[in-house]
Amino acid sequence: MNRYSRQILFTPLGPSGQERLRVARALVVGCGALGTHSAELLARAGIGSLRLVDRDVVEWSNLHRQGGFEESHAREGMPKAQALAGWLRRINSEVEVDARVTDFNFTNALELADGATVIIDGTDNLPTRFLLNDVSYRLAIPWVYAGAVGSSAHVQLFSGSRGPCLRCQLPTLPPPGTIATCDTSGVIGPTAALAAAWQAASALRAVSADGIAALAGKKAMLDPWAASARVVDTEADPECPACAKGRFEALEGAHGERATLLCGRAAVQVLPAGPSTGGFNWEEAMSRIAHLGPIEMLGRVLRVHSKDGFTLTLFDDGRAIFDGLTDPVQARTLYARFIGQ
Ligand SMILES: [Zn+2]
Fold first, then answer.
1. CA trace torsion 4, 5, 11, 13 (10° rounding)
2. C-beta of residue 164 within 8 angstroms of C-beta of residue 158
3. Which of 68, 128, 181, 282 has the fewest Cβ atoms surrounding its Cβ within 10 A?
4. Per-residue pLDDT reduced to its tens digit, 208-240
5. Phi, psi (deg, nearest 5) at residue 145
């Protein structure tokens, strides 16, 4: 227990909080700046287990703000969940770390969240956050939303049992292109790390003490560049489709898209048709794309640089990322041509 002595001395946590933390299970969805820093803080604090879900590989443009990644990861294009898992195991071997290199979507969300005590939002888009909100209220697991763009960030814990939830504030998805993203406005590392620290503190308090009741409804708005920070109370909407009416549209696939532009880079992800679990014919796919160019294999990840100007990365669940493309329709067409379906 010496390892945790300084946080056990912190009275609101104490020995009983540390014990509750030791048996807690966090699901981290997205291993970008928020997910990597939050996961590191939770691993250092001695959480029981961390399940890391991320669909992407480490890029050079991630290194300025994302924790746990090194130049070699970007050079090799290592899957983020895998790279982060290795780092966390070196930090704290007592924590059980489960890395899942997959897309978090309505077909697998409930299975991935099964058994979690708290969910960390490390995503970069609203459709996935709508899905996290549904999972949270369907399974009664608190989740901690965080978003960072430019120099400002928002963080809020949602209880999973009562309002307010994310949908109380945002009943419908804004049309594409109407909200600022890290794609259009950039983001600075300290803001993302600050948001992740607030997020990890909320998660720690939620699993080890009285955090859910104390924090629910409070939204933090932080901007270290502008030297401003405030916390506002948000209200539950009695007509909210998710927390009030129990209608989980995102879990039913209402916002699911097979082809999506990835935030922060010129790349499109295409999902295979049907559930993203098993059944993908790896050998056949390899033979179909062999003519595109030389194939690189990195464990269960395959990459080919096409002479047509894009790089195709294929994962063993049938998912593909087309780097160098920005048109989802074109990416789906290429997927159909080279991989099938
Ligand atoms: Zn709600």
1. 10
2. yes
3. 282
4. 988 899 999 999 999 999 999 999 999 999 999
5. -75, 140
Q: 3-class SS at 302?
A: strand
Q: Measured between alpha carbons, how far is 341 from 333 in angstroms, rounded to an integer?
A: 10
Q: Among all residues, which ones are annotated catalytic? A: 182
**Gap from CA of 198 to ligand 1 centroid (Å):** 22
The two three-digit tokens of residue 222, written as one number: 């932080």
Q: How close is the Cα of 110 to the center of ligand 1, in Å?
A: 19
Between the CA of 134 and the centroid of ligand 1 the distance, in Å, is 10
Ligand 1 geometric centre to CA of 238 (Å): 8
Query: How many other CB atoms are found less than 10 A from the CB of residue 231?
Result: 13
Per the document, the length of the chain is 341
pLDDT at 40 over 80: yes
Q: How far apart are CA 98 and CA 25, in angstroms?
A: 11
Its sign, for the CA torsion 197, 202, 205, 208, is negative
Q: How many Å lie between the centroid of ligand 1 and the Cα of residue 257?
A: 23
Residue 10, both tokens: 């912190």
Q: Are the CB atoms for 193 and 177 separated by under 8 Å? A: no
Please name each of the domains of the chain with its CATH number. Answer: 2-233 (3.40.50.720), 259-338 (3.30.310)
Cα 91 to Cα 333: distance, rounded to the nearest angstrom: 43
CA 220-226-227 angle, to 5 degrees, is 65
CA 12 centroid distance within chain: 29
Lowest mean pLDDT among 156-160, 174-178, 240-244, 246-250: 174-178
Lowest mean pLDDT: which of 33-47, 75-89, 183-197, 298-312? 298-312
Worst-scoring range by mean pLDDT, 77-91, 235-249, 271-285? 271-285
